[in-house]
Write a structure and sequence with these properties.
- The protein has two domains: 3-158 and 270-293, Jelly Rolls (Sandwich); 160-263, Homeodomain-like (Arc Repressor Mutant, subunit A, Orthogonal Bundle), CATH 1.10.10.
- Helix content is 46%, strand content 20%.
- It is built from eleven helices and eleven strands.
- Strands 1, 2, 5, 7, 8 and 11 form a six-stranded antiparallel beta sheet that branches.
- The chain is globular.
Length: 296
């Protein structure tokens, strides 16, 4: 597989939202990276993990918010906040978040923000103008997604010390991306690497910032979030499809990780509080596959 085939961008959601002034909001987590453009007003985003710091969000700034990290937002402008939120999956080898291999600064350089504003504005314009033209819309989503990724990578720092260990985990990551909905034997995962059991857990935690169990849970929640947005399946059916056959347990884990119940997430259509005007990525595998592979 060539490097250009290993990397893909998948549009998830676009939300234009207005929020009233509020010192803090509830803790939430999105299974996808998020870009927030504060069009009017200012605030900040705080990660629960204090080591990740704060993300200040000045007026007209664009902020990058990491996937799978619990956070809360605050609006400080007395007359509230207007923002545009865009979410993509930046996927490496079929599911791993490519940006996990990089450190993106909490305050983005102005040239990167300008590029992000241009791409986000173009995406919003195309979403409003191309309703009904699925192929043109899919092309614009890909173009804007790669423009966003390019802007982020230009200001990001590659985690060079992680490359050798990461390469040794690739087989495990690919296996989990393919089989996360099935029962996973940890000993089988360890056998795919040159590591001892203790060393495997240490390296996995260092490279993916989670335990293998937590990583599987995040893959399942990510897949469930997509199904909730793109299907009319019941919560129980969604849970079963991603590997949780106990609907109550599925709902419990989903809410623990995202801050919302599955039904609330579906109703919100992927935005943070369900108060905005949303555009959600369509599940059109035939179009996505053609665009990614070059056609028939």
């Amino acid at each position: 597989m060539s490097r250009d085939q290993e990397i893909d961008v998948v549009f998830r959601v676009l939300v234009r939202q207005q929020l009233p002034c509020a010192p803090t909001r509830g803790w939430i987590m999105q299974p996808f990276p998020v870009l927030i453009w504060n069009i009017r007003g200012h605030g900040e985003t705080l990660y629960r993990d204090s080591r990740l710091g704060r993300v200040p969000r000045a007026e007209n700034s664009v902020a990058y918010i990491m996937a799978n990290e619990v956070r809360q937002s605050a609006t400080y402008s007395s007359d509230g906040l207007d923002y545009l939120m865009v979410s993509y999956s930046f996927e490496y080898r079929g599911g791993f978040n490519l940006l996990n291999l990089y450190k993106v600064p909490n305050v983005l350089p102005e040239d990167a923000q300008e590029a992000l504003r241009e791409a986000m504005g173009r995406l919003e314009q195309s979403e409003n103008a191309m309703v009904g033209d699925a192929t043109a819309q899919a092309v614009q989503r890909k173009l804007c997604g790669y423009a966003l990724l390019d802007a982020l990578l230009r200001c990001a720092t590659r985690r060079q010390d992680s490359v050798p260990q990461w390469r040794r985990l690739l087989t495990v990551v690919q296996y989990l991306n393919d089989y996360f909905a099935e029962p996973i034997d940890v000993d089988k995962l360890i056998a795919l690497t040159p590591y001892s059991r203790a060393h495997f857990f240490r390296i996995f935690q260092a490279q993916l910032h989670s335990t293998p169990l937590a990583y599987i849970q995040r893959l399942r929640v990510r897949a469930a979030a997509i199904r909730l947005l793109h299907s009319a399946d019941s919560v129980a059916a969604v849970g079963a499809a991603v590997g949780w056959h106990d609907a109550f347990y599925f709902s419990k884990v989903f809410k623990q990780l995202t801050g919302m119940s599955p039904l609330a997430y579906r109703k919100s259509r992927g935005d943070e509080l369900g108060m905005g005007t949303s555009k959600v990525g369509d599940e059109r595998p035939e179009i996505d596959n053609e665009l990614s592979s070059g056609g028939m």
